[in-house]
Design a protein that fits this description.
Length: 452
């Protein structure tokens, strides 16, 4: 599958951000301004992990000669960080090639002006040449977004380590300081925060879009710090407790789901994006306070089951963008604009974590069901495409091969069917785009009785 996705991209869209697999041409999303090659950078580590070294060398050569960040264009700080900085960091740690370290630090430095706000909460959008930032016009009165400013931590800690410049780490640690000063409604973190006033915007809370990877990065910051980052740990388990109490619900037939919260009212909808939470909760269960390990593992398994149901209840056996638990339905999309599937990874990601922690064969079975559906409905001659309606009897392709399909979906599938010692969790933490980053070990002086 990776070979088909990569070869098609190389043949029809080389150098563009993404491939249009039906019309067989390049496609560039404005999330990356005029930076090019998103698929190449996002796919580097997957190629390496799958031992596709010839392809990896071709990609490395492209990065050396063509990857250019001196563009006069506005980019999404979050997207560029998770895909480009994250992709380059992983490629560096896996291959040891200096070019990736250099490019990651160069790009990180270009992102620093985004933090020039009265609070230090970064802008969502940044012009890489002028250093002028702003927020999405639709985001609650000029607010920054939790899942965007809260998903820089892992990459920025590594940038400080690799460059010797403490500024990256200081910027992301300050974000926590701002958050910790604020009152949290019912212990929850609203999705919107104004970077000028330091006050929350609308009280919308979500573990899916706009919120998701903020929670993921609290847990992973602790794990990636060799469990020294107690602040990250406490913030994660407190947030999860508030999510359990206020957002997690069970449907009448017994499916556990995570709803969205709007000013105290629940919207009984769960996004495909929210399905990553099964994997996250399983990953954190071992460190859970108050003997909650077993409870959190059960919760993670229930979320995996619900997300599997959202796939099983469609015609194409691929999950919708969002599914609902109201008006007499369970785990089914009811709105036309929520029925699409864009090759997202979250459900497979959760299967991979659940497999590693339980070795229950059902997770591999479910992963295999997804492989078959992808092959049957998303594979086209020119690559892999998303589909517009998973309830339709035959696929209507959207003509986009998302870069995260190569970075995440295919990597998590590969790991689901690999041995556990392939990228073991004791040594690697995956960023939100599935780019593995090594655990930063405690100083030897803190562990006098251990040998590195
Ligand atoms: C990816 O870019 C990342 O997984 C992000 O956290 C959420 N959206 C896409 C995949 O769905």
């Amino acid at each position: 599958m990776m070979k088909h996705a990569w070869d098609s991209y190389q043949r029809y869209a080389w150098g563009s951000n993404e491939l249009r697999p039906v019309s067989k041409q390049g496609h560039s999303s404005n999330l990356f301004g005029s930076i090019k090659g998103a698929t190449i950078v996002d796919a580097l580590d997957t190629l390496y992990i799958m031992e596709m070294f010839e392809e990896f060398d071709v990609a490395t050569d492209w990065v050396e000669k063509n990857l250019d960040f001196s563009v006069n264009a506005e980019v999404s700080v979050f997207e560029v960080n998770i895909r480009f900085v994250g992709g380059l960091l992983s490629a560096y740690y896996l291959s040891g090639k200096e070019v990736f370290r250099r490019k990651a630090v160069e790009l990180g430095e270009k992102l620093l002006p985004a933090f020039k706000t009265p609070t230090g909460i970064p802008w969502a959008l940044l012009n890489l040449k002028s250093g002028v930032g702003r927020n999405w016009p639709w985001a609650s009165g000029g607010s920054s977004i939790l899942a965007e400013y809260g998903t820089l931590h892992l990459e920025f800690m590594h940038l400080s380590k690799l460059s010797g410049n403490p500024e990256f780490a200081q910027k992301v640690m300050n974000i926590r300081k701002v958050l910790n000063r604020l009152d949290k409604p019912q212990g929850l973190y609203p999705n919107y925060l104004n970077p000028n006033s330091g006050q929350w915007g609308q009280h919308h809370v979500s573990v899916g879009g706009l919120g998701d990877s903020f929670y993921e990065y609290l847990l992973k910051a602790w794990l990636m710090s060799d469990k020294t980052d107690e602040e990250g740990k406490n913030m994660y388990y407190d947030a999860l407790q508030a999510i359990e109490t206020n957002l997690m619900r069970k449907s009448s037939s017994g499916l556990t789901y995570i709803a969205e919260w709007k000013g105290g009212l629940l919207e009984h909808k769960m996004g495909h994006l929210t399905c990553f939470a099964g994997g996250m909760i399983a990953l954190g269960a071992d460190g859970a306070p108050d003997d909650k390990t077993g409870h959190q593992m059960e919760e993670a398994a229930e979320i995996a089951r619900t997300c599997h149901e959202s796939y099983a209840r469609t015609a194409l056996k691929l999950g919708p963008e969002a599914f609902r638990f109201d008006g007499g339905v369970e785990a089914i999309a009811t709105r036309q604009n929520e029925k699409y599937f864009i090759l997202r990874p979250e459900v497979i990601e959760t299967y991979m974590y659940m497999w590693r922690f339980t070795h229950d064969p059902k997770y591999r079975d479910w992963g295999w069901e997804a492989v078959q559906a992808l092959e049957q409905h998303c594979r086209v001659e020119g690559g892999y495409s998303g589909v517009r309606d998973v309830y339709a009897s035959s696929p209507n392709h959207d003509d986009v091969q998302q870069s995260f399909y190569l970075a995440e979906t295919l990597k998590y599938l590969y790991l689901l069917f690999s041995d556990d010692d392939h990228l073991p969790f004791e040594h690697w933490v995956f960023n939100t785009e599935a780019h593995p980053l090594p655990v930063i070990r405690k100083e030897i002086k803190d562990r006098p009785n251990e040998v590195e």
